[in-house]
């Protein structure tokens, strides 16, 4: 069994609140048996070098760690302070990576638009993604990006959704992909896109209550910072469907 610990949206900002919420999750992962840790974006809240320097210390594991940017991240300071975790040519945007960890290949796609909240993959990014996915690989292949290819049907969050999804669907259709792993919406999400399963990790810093939930679950804000942080474990066993287990450790 090959196990991915999938974390997302820690939004580190130097505060004790953000730090303690992340540590609740990382300590749980360290006590578990996993093969790789994936953090799917919004690593820092303001994209500051100090925030990434703090994150580098918090993401010390005995297994490989993969990170990718979210819309709150800034490419240059992310690359500078997390250089040991990033393998991507260049010194700016985008930060695309193709990484092999054990039996699995991870295609880490930068879905961000500098200075904006929504996601978009440029023509060059789609060409890169298509080329990587056409390379033969004998093992599970995971495509990870911050923005999920879906509409959350939330009046605020959908302002910052992944745009031009049809172009992405054209690239992904028919490719050998085990799952698409995402973050951004601060909720555990299970859906499908272009014939592939999509698994979104819950938010570490907060949760986004949805319009159909009871009003007592909301705080009058887009996010609920009091909701317990969570993570996803994705367990791959050859010949079996991918299993995803969501945990909210106390």
Automatic annotation (TrEMBL):
It holds the Pfam family Metallophos. GO terms for molecular function: hydrolase activity; metal ion binding. The keyword Transit peptide does not apply. Residues 4-187 form the Calcineurin-like phosphoesterase domain. The keyword Cytoplasm does not apply. InterPro entries: Calcineurin-like_PHP (IPR004843), CNP_phosphodiesterase-III (IPR050884), Metallo-depent_PP-like (IPR029052). Keywords: Hydrolase, Iron, Metal-binding. Belongs to the cyclic nucleotide phosphodiesterase class-III family. This is Calcineurin-like phosphoesterase family protein. It comes from Kribbella rubisoli.
């Amino acid at each position: 069994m090959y196990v991915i610990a999938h974390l997302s949206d820690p939004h580190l900002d130097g505060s004790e609140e953000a730090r303690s919420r992340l540590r609740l999750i990382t300590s749980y992962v360290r006590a578990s048996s996993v093969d790789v840790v994936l953090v799917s974006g919004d690593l820092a809240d303001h994209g500051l070098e100090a925030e990434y320097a703090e994150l580098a210390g918090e993401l010390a594991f005995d297994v490989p760690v993969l990170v990718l940017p979210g819309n709150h991240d800034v490419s240059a300071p992310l690359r500078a302070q997390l250089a040991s975790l990033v393998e991507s040519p260049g010194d700016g945007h985008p930060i695309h990576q193709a990484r092999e960890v054990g039996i699995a290949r991870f295609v880490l796609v930068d879905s961000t638009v500098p200075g904006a909240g929504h996601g978009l993959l440029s023509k060059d990014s789609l060409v890169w993604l298509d080329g990587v996915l056409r390379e033969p690989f004998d093992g599970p292949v995971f495509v990870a990006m911050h923005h999920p290819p879906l509409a959350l049907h939330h009046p605020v969050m959908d302002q910052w959704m992944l745009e031009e999804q049809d172009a992405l669907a054209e690239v992904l259709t028919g490719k050998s992909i085990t799952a698409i792993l995402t973050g951004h919406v601060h909720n555990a999400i299970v859906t499908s896109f272009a014939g592939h399963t999509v698994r979104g990790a819950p938010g570490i810093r907060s949760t986004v209550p949805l319009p159909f939930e009871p009003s007592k679950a909301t705080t009058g804000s887009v996010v609920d910072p009091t909701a317990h942080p969570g993570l996803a474990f994705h367990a791959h066993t050859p010949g079996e469907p991918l299993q995803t287990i969501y945990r909210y450790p106390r």
